[in-house]
Amino acid sequence: MPELPEVETIRRQLHRRLAGSKIVEVKVWRSGRETPRSIRLSAALVDRTIVSVERRAKLLIWKLDHGQSLVAHLKMTGRFVFVSSSHEPAKHDRIGFSLRRRGQNIRVVWSDVRQFGFIRLVSTSTLKKLLETYGPEPLKISPEKLAERLKSGSVRKLKSALLDQTVIAGIGNIYADEVCHRAGLLPTRRLASLSSRERVGLARVIQSVLRAAVAERGTSADDYVDAQGKPGNFLKFLRVYGRAGKPCRSCHQGIIKKIVLGQRGTHYCTRCQR
DNA sequence: AAGAAGTCCTGGGCGC
DNA sequence: TGCGCCCAGGACTTCT
Question: Which residues on adjacent β-strands are paired with residue A56?
Fold first, then answer.
C-alpha cells in the first residue's frame, strides 16, 4: 500500500518527466465515485503546462501553470504508470494523459483496482486547506520536533498515533509496524508510557526507516508498482510486516505475532519489543 | 472526546 | 473447475 516512500518514489519519477510538459489530451475511460468526468477534466487540463509534481503526506500534486492543481491519493491500489503511445486501456485503467515535452510524446495512465483512491482538480485555496489538515512531514523536521508530536498524556496506543495523519504525515500500516519493531516498542504501548528517551529514539527510527525505504523505491508487499511499473525493493528489508509466525530477523528467537489493532493487521516480535 | 466500528471496493486465497 | 466466503486496508463517517 503506497505510503510516504512509495508516493515519493512515484513523485520523483513523474516530476522528472512531466515538469515542463504540456497536457495534450485527457481521456477518461472509466469514471467512478472518485474519478472526475471527462468533459470537466479535459476542459481544465488540455493546453496546461505542468510546473512541478510535488508530494505532501501521501498526496501527489501536479501543479499547473494556471494555479490549479491535480491532486491524487493512491490509497490502496491507485497507480500512475508511464505507458507507450500504443497502450490500450486495461480493465482498471481510468484516465489516460497524453503530454508533450521538447518534441517528445509522454503517456501516463491513472488506474485503480479497488477505487479507494481519488484524483481531483483543486484551486490554490482548496489545496491549501486540504494540506493544512496534515501533520508535519517526518523527514523535514528534527528528531526532537518529531518526538514532540508523539508526546501525549493520553492512553492512545502508539500505532494508532503513528497512523494518524494529523500527528505525522505519511506513515501507513507497513511502516508503522516496521518502525515499532526497530524502536523496540510494542505497537500497543500507550503514548503516555513512553519516556522522552524512547520518544526521541522512536523519532530517529521513523526517519531512518522512511529514508531507507525511499532509497529502495518503496515496498511492494501487495501490488504496488512505481511509475515505471517496477516493484519497490524494501520488501526484503521488512522485519515484521507480513511475517506472522516467522522468526524475528533481529533477535532470531522471537516469533512474529499478528494481532488486530485499530482494525489493522499488526505485527510485532514478542521478545524484542516492549 | 477519544476510540471503536462501519463504509467504500475488488482480486486473491481458501475450503469444499 | 467453480462457487461462496473472507481478507487486505486509508481515511472518512457514524456510533458509543
Answer: A59
